[in-house]
Known about the structure:
Number of domains: 2
Structural class: alpha+beta
Radius of gyration: 26 Å
Strand content: 5-15%
Oligomer: single chain
Strand order of the largest sheet: 1-2
Shape: elongated
Order of helices and strands: EEHHEE
Amino acid sequence: MERYCICGKPIQNNRRLCKECGEIYGYNPNNWPEWLRWLVSDMQRSIDQERNHVEVPLDDIEPNGCGGYRAKRVFALRGCRTETHLYQDK
């Protein structure tokens, strides 16, 4: 996701303000006006939400027995269980 300054310019992901806005308001958030702190925090909140939001299909979950859900277990067949001789008559 691309990050933008409050003025609309694209900036690096590790920055909060572009160079021009940093010269105007400074780089210390404690010295910013309240509206600027709120706006930068709101932009960071939406970036965090997009990064942390994971959609899981209903077919991939099962009840965990405690009122919640967990990912379905994957059962792997190993060894001779994949061989056809187990299903032949002896």
